C-alpha cells in the first residue's frame, strides 16, 4: 500500500496531490484505503490534465470516502465521471418524492430507456450512500429514499411499457393496472441491494384491447405481456448491468401461478386457497405504481379483511414459529458466518415480533397497524403492547442491524447479510460501522442479537422443535435416511404445491419430527412419500389424511400401506371410497374367509370396491402381523374365489372352472396370475358354451386379474375349453411329466357342478395311477436343473439354486410318491417336515416371505441376504433327493 501511494505521488500532477493527501491523512478512518486509492487513480486517468473544478472543494473528501466504502458505486462514477458534478449538486439536499421521478426518455427507444433507468439508479444510490456515510440522514429517511427511487423506476418502466403495448394491441377494455410493492418496499424500508418484491394486479379479466399493429388481445393476455415487459426492462442485464432484481414469488401460487392476476382471481385465492404465511406477506403490501386510485384501492379493500381478522387470532403464533424454523434451517447451512438478517436475534426476529402483534391484534386495534417496522414499534409501545425497555431494545437493535446490513451490502451491492467474524471483510465492516476494531464490533453485534433473541423467545416460547417444512437435507441425513435429498423434495412439494389446504399444511408442519420419524420407520421412505403425494391428489385422500394427523396409530397404518410399491395406491385411485371402510377393526382383526368376503360384497353392493377393500384388508392383516404367510396366501385366494364365483353365478355358463398354480393350491400372492382351465361335461355343452369363455375371462380382467390359460391340454395350440373325455385322453396319451407336477395343485373352483366327481377322478387317475419311479424322478430332477439354468438369473429367489421352486418340486414329488393330492405346498411340506424331521415348512415360509417383500416394495429389505436362506433350502432339497431316490428304487421301470 505504501509503495502504491509513493508511486502515485511521483506520477500525479500537483493538483491531484490533494487527493493523495486526503487518503494519507484519513487512512485510519477509511475502511478500505487500497480501494479508495485505486479508484482515485482510475479517476485521475479520466482527467490527466489536472483535478477538475468540481473536485476542488470539500466534496473531494466525501467522494474518496464513497470510493472507500463502495467498489460498485466507485466503478460507476469512474466509468461515467459526467455524473459526478450532478452527484455533488444533489447529495446534500433532502429530496421529495417528485425529485426521484425518471424523465427524459424517448417513446419506443427501449435501449435508451434501459440505460436511463440504470444511470438514474446509480446516481441516486450514490447520493443516498453518501448521505449515509456522511451521517446526514437517519435510517428511516435513507430507506425511504431507496424505496422512492425503486418506485420511480418501476413507475417509469410501467409508463414506457404501456406506451409500447398500446401501440401494439391498443388500450384494454374496462381495466387498468397496478404494481403492488411487497415486503420492505411496502414500508419504505428497502436495503441498498434489495430485490424488489412485487405483485402485478389488474382490475378485470373481462374484456379485450381496442387493437393495434399486432392485433387484439384478451385483457389477461395483455396484462401478462405487460408484466413480463416491465420485468424485462428493469432486470435484463445490459452492458450497463441490470437496474435491480424483481422477485415475483409472493404472487398467488408463487412461480406456479400466472404473472399477474385480476381482482376477482385474487379474491378467490385469498378467501379459499391462501396459506397463513401469506397473511404475513400481505401485511406488508402497498400499491406503488400504475393505477393507484381504482385498481390500487380495490386491491387494498380486498386484502385488508384477509390480513386483519375481526377477532383476536392467536393461531398465527404457530405460523410465526413455523416460519422461524424455516429460516433457521437456511441459516444452519452458513456454517460459522453471522447472519444479521436471518440468524437468531437478527432483523427477521424483530420483524416477526412486530408483524405477529399486528396480525393477532390488528383486526381489533387499527391504531397499531403500519407497514414500517420502526413506526410500528412506536405504535406498539404507545398502545401498551411493548414496555419502554422492550421498545428501546428493539428499536436500537433494529437500527444497528439494518445499518450493519447496509454496510455489508454497500461494497458490491449484492443481496447478502452474512459475514465471517474473523475475516478481512469483518475488519472493513467494523470501520464502516465506526468501531476501532473487529473484536469490539463483533462483540457489540453479538450482544445486540442476543438481546433481540431473548425477547423473541419470551414473546414466542418454543420447545425448539423443528417444523416439518424446516427440516434440511442435513437433518434428514442425520436421521439416517437412505435418500435424504428425495425425501426433502417430497416434503417441499407438500408445502409448495396445491395438495393441502393452508390449515392442513399448518397441522402437518407442526408435527415436525413426529411425522418424519413415522416416515423413517417405513420399509421404503421414498416410496411412501411418493405415494403420499398421489394419495393427496384425491379429495378423499386429503380429507382422511387431515383427520388422521391427530390419530398417530391410524396415520402409521396408512403410511405402511403407502409404502407398498403400487398395491394400495392403485386400488385407492380406482376406488377412493375405500377409505371409509378400511380401518374397521372387524375387517382387520377377523380372518378374511370366503363367507366374510361375501358379506362385504353384499353390504357394499359395489363389486370393484369390495374386491379392492378385501385385498387391502388381507395385506394390512399381514403387515400388522395378524397372519402368517400361509394364512395370507389363503386369504388372498379367498377374495379371488369370491370374485370368480360371483361372475360364474351371474353368467351361469355350461363349463366348470378349475385352476392350477398358486390359485389352485390357495397360495396366491400380490400380483399372482390365475392359471385357469375351462372344462365341459360333454361335446354338446362345449359346442353351446365355448363362446362364453372369452366374456368370462374379460370380466375377470376387468377386476385387475391376469388370466393365463396356457396350461390347458396342448397349451396355446389346444382349444381354450375341453371336455372331461378329451382331458382323460390327453392325460394318458400326450401329457408330460411336468404336467403331472402341475396338476398336483389342481383345484375345481366351481365345486358345485354336477360332473365334479368325473373331473376329480380324471385328475387323480392322471396323478396316481402310475406310482413314482426312479426314471420319473430323474426326469423331475433334470427339469429342475433346466429351470435353474434358464431362469435362475432372471428370477433368483424363485428359480435360483435353493429358491422357492426347490421347495415346490419337493412338494410335487412327495405327493406323487404318497399317491395323495394335498395341493397346498405349505401343507405338503408340513407333513414332510414331520416325516423327515427336517424344517422344510419354515424355510419355504421364509422364502415366500422374501418373495412377498419384493412384490410389496419392489426390493428386498429384511431379506437382503436371502442367499443364506437359499443355501439352507438347497441343502434340504438335496437331502430330500437322496431320501426319495432310496424310496423309489423299488419302482424301477
Write the layout of secondary structure elements.
Layout: H1 2-11, H2 17-25, H3 33-46, H4 59-69, H5 71-79, H6 84-90, H7 110-133, H8 139-169, E1 177-182, E2 196-202, H9 219-235, E3 246-247, E4 260-262, H10 263-272, H11 276-283, E5 285-290, H12 292-307, H13 316-331, E6 338-339, H14 347-361, H15 373-382, H16 388-409, E7 418-419, H17 424-432, H18 438-459, H19 473-478, H20 484-496, H21 502-511, H22 513-521, H23 525-536, H24 539-548, H25 552-562, H26 567-574, H27 585-589, H28 594-604, H29 607-623, H30 629-651, E8 656-660, H31 661-664, E9 674-680, H32 683-689, H33 693-702, E10 707-708, E11 721-723, H34 724-733, H35 737-742, E12 747-748, H36 756-768, H37 774-791, H38 796-799, H39 804-818, H40 825-836, H41 840-857, H42 866-888
Parallel strand pairs: 2-3, 2-4, 9-10, 9-11
Antiparallel strand pairs: 1-2, 1-5, 6-7, 8-9, 8-12
Explain briefly what this protein structure is.
With 893 residues, this protein is mainly alpha-helical. It is built from 42 helices and twelve strands.
Q: What does it look like?
A:
The protein is built from 42 helices and twelve strands. Strands 1, 2, 3, 4 and 5 form a five-stranded mixed β-sheet that branches. The protein is elongated and about 125 Å long. Helix 9 links the parallel strand 2 and strand 3 (246-247). With 893 residues, it is mainly α. The chain starts with a helix and ends in a 5-residue tail after the last helix. Helix 20 (484-496) runs parallel beside helix 23. The longest helix is centred in the first third of the chain and has 31 residues, at 139-169. Among the domains are: 91-307, Beta Polymerase, domain 2; 316-443, Nucleotidyltransferases  domain 2 (Four Helix Bundle (Hemerythrin (Met), subunit A)); 628-769, 2-Layer Sandwich (Beta Polymerase, domain 2); 770-893, Nucleotidyltransferases  domain 2 (Four Helix Bundle (Hemerythrin (Met), subunit A), Up-down Bundle).
Amino acid at each position: 500500500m505504501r509503495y502504491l501511494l509513493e508511486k502515485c505521488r511521483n506520477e500525479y500532477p500537483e493538483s491531484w496531490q490533494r487527493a493523495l493527501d486526503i487518503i494519507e491523512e484519513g487512512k485510519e478512518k477509511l475502511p478500505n484505503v487500497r480501494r479508495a486509492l485505486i479508484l482515485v487513480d482510475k479517476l485521475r486517468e479520466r482527467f490527466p490534465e489536472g483535478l477538475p473544478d468540481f473536485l476542488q472543494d470539500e466534496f473531494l473528501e466525501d467522494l474518496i470516502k464513497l470510493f472507500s466504502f463502495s467498489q460498485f458505486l466507485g466503478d460507476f462514477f469512474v466509468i461515467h465521471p459526467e455524473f459526478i458534478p450532478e452527484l455533488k449538486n444533489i447529495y446534500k439536499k433532502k429530496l421529495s418524492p417528485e425529485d426521484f421521478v425518471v424523465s427524459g426518455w424517448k417513446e419506443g427507444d427501449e435501449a435508451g430507456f434501459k440505460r436511463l433507468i440504470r444511470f438514474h439508479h446509480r446516481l441516486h444510490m450514490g447520493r443516498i450512500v453518501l448521505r449515509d456515510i456522511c451521517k446526514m440522514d437517519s435510517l428511516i429517511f435513507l430507506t425511504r429514499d431507496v424505496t422512492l427511487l425503486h418506485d420511480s423506476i418501476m413507475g417509469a418502466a410501467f409508463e414506457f411499457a404501456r406506451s409500447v403495448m398500446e401501440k401494439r394491441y391498443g388500450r384494454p377494455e374496462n381495466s387498468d393496472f397496478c404494481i403492488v410493492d411487497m415486503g420492505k418496499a411496502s414500508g419504505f424500508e428497502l436495503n441498498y441491494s434489495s430485490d424488489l418484491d412485487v405483485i402485478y394486479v389488474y382490475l378485470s379479466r373481462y374484456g379485450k384491447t381496442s387493437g393495434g399493429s399486432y392485433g387484439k388481445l384478451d385483457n389477461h393476455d395483455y396484462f401478462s405481456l405487460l408484466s413480463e415487459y416491465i420485468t424485462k426492462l428493469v432486470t435484463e442485464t445490459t452492458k450497463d448491468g441490470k437496474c435491480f432484481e424483481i422477485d415475483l414469488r409472493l404472487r398467488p401460487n408463487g412461480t406456479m401461478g400466472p404473472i399477474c392476476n385480476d381482482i376477482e382471481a385474487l379474491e378467490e385465492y385469498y378467501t379459499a386457497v391462501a396459506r397463513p404465511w401469506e397473511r404475513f406477506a400481505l401485511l406488508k403490501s402497498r400499491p406503488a405504481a400504475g393505477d393507484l386510485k381504482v385498481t390500487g384501492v380495490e386491491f387494498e379493500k380486498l386484502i385488508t379483511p384477509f390480513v386483519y381478522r375481526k377477532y383476536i387470532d392467536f393461531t398465527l403464533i404457530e405460523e410465526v414459529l413455523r416460519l422461524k424454523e424455516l429460516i433457521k434451517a437456511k441459516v444452519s447451512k452458513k456454517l460459522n458466518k453471522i447472519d444479521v438478517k436471518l440468524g437468531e436475534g437478527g432483523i427477521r426476529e424483530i420483524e416477526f415480533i412486530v408483524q405477529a402483534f399486528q396480525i393477532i391484534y390488528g383486526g381489533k386495534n387499527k391504531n397499531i397497524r403500519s407497514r414500517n417496522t420502526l413506526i410500528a414499534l412506536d405504535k406498539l409501545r404507545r398502545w401498551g403492547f411493548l414496555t419502554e425497555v422492550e421498545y428501546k431494545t428493539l428499536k436500537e437493535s433494529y437500527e444497528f442491524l439494518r445499518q450493519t446490513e447496509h454496510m455489508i451490502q454497500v461494497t458490491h451491492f449484492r443481496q447478502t447479510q452474512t459475514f465471517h467474524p474473523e475475516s478481512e471483510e469483518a475488519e472493513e465492516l467494523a470501520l464502516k460501522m465506526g468501531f476501532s476494531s473487529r473484536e469490539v464490533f463483533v462483540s457489540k453485534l453479538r450482544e445486540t442479537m442476543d438481546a433481540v433473541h431473548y425477547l423473541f423467545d419470551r414473546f414466542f416460547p418454543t420447545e425448539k422443535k423443528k417444523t416439518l417444512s424446516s427440516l434440511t437435507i442435513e437433518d434428514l441425513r442425520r436421521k439416517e435416511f437412505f435418500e435424504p435429498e428425495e425425501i426433502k423434495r417430497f416434503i417441499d412439494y407438500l408445502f409448495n404445491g396445491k395438495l393441502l389446504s393452508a390449515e392442513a399444511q399448518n397441522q402437518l408442519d407442526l408435527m415436525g419430527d413426529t411425522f418424519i420419524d413415522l416416515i423413517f420407520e417405513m420399509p421404503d421412505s421414498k416410496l411412501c412419500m411418493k405415494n403420499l403425494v398421489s394419495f393427496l391428489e384425491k379429495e378423499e385422500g386429503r380429507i382422511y389424511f387431515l383427520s388422521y394427523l391427530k390419530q398417530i396409530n391410524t396415520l402409521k397404518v396408512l403410511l405402511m400401506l403407502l409404502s407398498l410399491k403400487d398395491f394400495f395406491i392403485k386400488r385407492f385411485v380406482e376406488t377412493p371410497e375405500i377409505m371409509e371402510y378400511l380401518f374397521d377393526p372387524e375387517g382387520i382383526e377377523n380372518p378374511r374367509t370366503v363367507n366374510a368376503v361375501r358379506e362385504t360384497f353384499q353390504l357394499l353392493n359395489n363389486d370393484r370396491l369390495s374386491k379392492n377393500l378385501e385385498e387391502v384388508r388381507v395385506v394390512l392383516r399381514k403387515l400388522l402381523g395378524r397372519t402368517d404367510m400361509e394364512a395370507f396366501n389363503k386369504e388372498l385366494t379367498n377374495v379371488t374365489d369370491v370374485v370368480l364365483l360371483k361372475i360364474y353365478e351371474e353368467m351361469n355358463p355350461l363349463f366348470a372352472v378349475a385352476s392350477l398354480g398358486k390359485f389352485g393350491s390357495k397360495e396366491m400372492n400380490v400380483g399372482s396370475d390365475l392359471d385357469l382351465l375351462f372344462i365341459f361335461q360333454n361335446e354338446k355343452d362345449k359346442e353351446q358354451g365355448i363362446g362364453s369363455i372369452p366374456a368370462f375371462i374379460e370380466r375377470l380382467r376387468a377386476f385387475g386379474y391376469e388370466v393365463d390359460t396356457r396350461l390347458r391340454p396342448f397349451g396355446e395350440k389346444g382349444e381354450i375349453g375341453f371336455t372331461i373325455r378329451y382331458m382323460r385322453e390327453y392325460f394318458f396319451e400326450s401329457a408330460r411329466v411336468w404336467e403331472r407336477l402341475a396338476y398336483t395343485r389342481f383345484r375345481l373352483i366351481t365345486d358345485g357342478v354336477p360332473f365334479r366327481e368325473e373331473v376329480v377322478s380324471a385328475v387323480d387317475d392322471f396323478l396316481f395311477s402310475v406310482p413314482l419311479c426312479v426314471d420319473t424322478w430323474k426326469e423331475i430332477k433334470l427339469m429342475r436343473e433346466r429351470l435353474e439354468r434358464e431362469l435362475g438369473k432372471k428370477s433368483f429367489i424363485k428359480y435360483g439354486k435353493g429358491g422357492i421352486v426347490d421347495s415346490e418340486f419337493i412338494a410335487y414329488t412327495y405327493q406323487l410318491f404318497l399317491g395323495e393330492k394335498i395341493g397346498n405346498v405349505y401343507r405338503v411340506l408340513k407333513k414332510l417336515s414331520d416325516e423327515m424331521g427336517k424344517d422344510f415348512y419354515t424355510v419355504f415360509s421364509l422364502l415366500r416371505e422374501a418373495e412377498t417383500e419384493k412384490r410389496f416394495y419392489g426390493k428386498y429389505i429384511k431379506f437382503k441376504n436371502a442367499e443364506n436362506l437359499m443355501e439352507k433350502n438347497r441343502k434340504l432339497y438335496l437331502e430330500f433327493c437322496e431320501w426319495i431316490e432310496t424310496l423309489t428304487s423299488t419302482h424301477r421301470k
